[in-house]
Fold this protein.
Amino acid sequence: MEFITQPWAWYVAGPIIALIMFLLFYFGERFGVSSNLETFCSIGGAGKLVDYFKIDWKQNSWNLIFVAGAILGGFISSHWLSPSDIGDAVALNPQTVQDLADIGIINAGATYLPDEIFSIDTMLSLKGFFLLLMAGIMVGFGARWAGGCTSGHAIVGLSNLEIPSLISVIGFFIGGLVMTWFILPLIF
Amino acid sequence: MKYIKFFLVGILFGIVMSKAEIISWYRIYEMFKFQSFHMYGIIGSAVILGMLSMYFFRKKMVKTFEGNEIHVAPKKQGLYRNLLGGILFGLGWALAGACPGPMFVLVGKGVVSILVVIFGATLGAFFYGLFKNKIPH
């Protein structure tokens, strides 16, 4: 069991992600998580306000089921597949830990997520709530504008050698680099 | 019953996202800082193997389980759509440290605050539908 409970290396994870993409095609569908966000809007009745959401969302049911599985997978991992010795610790480059301490995020790597962004106390503060909400809005708006997220563009689109996906992934990196190098240091 | 296979693949997805620490905010931060090979190795190896899958699909060597040919519909063209949408997505990705898939996996991990991010992402998708005709594609 130990090789399962220890953190998985990139050369294990990458091929499994490729397998997931393959299986979804084999099952007649296409890997892409962010389209579920539009399905949520349709289920929530957004079609009454905007024609764009007037779709038969039931044809996307498989993807909602996929997401439900992903939630259960996260639950299974954290409850039964966590290593007993290191728990949730993430082995980071010491330079990363130092860089984060310099911008106000302490104990980097002690758990999966920084308390400075994700703790309940942070969420209940005005600034913390606003940051979480804004991050979500940018991800949701951006993904639908670009027509896909990391799964649809970076994995499926790049695999299929598509120029729109290459442009989108370049965009993902421009945005990510600007946030990481220039905006995050100003936030905390 | 026809949905159970998607549920099982979803579970595998959730486990690999968790166990390879892809759902960790720090892994996304260090990727954008170029301080670790981890995420590049994951995406790179997935894409290389993905290209192989696409080759099998194109050559019709692999069909769906129902025997249909697999056509991968091309993504929509448009410089503004892909570049500007991509940049906005990237800003959010680096702040949340999670793209849409990992957000849901974090729910299973019991991270309450990620629900605010998911709510925001749904709101973002709604705003896109609302302003779709007013922004460049």
User: Anything to note?
Assistant: Helices of chain B lie at 4-19, 25-32, 38-58, 79-96, 100-109, 114-131.
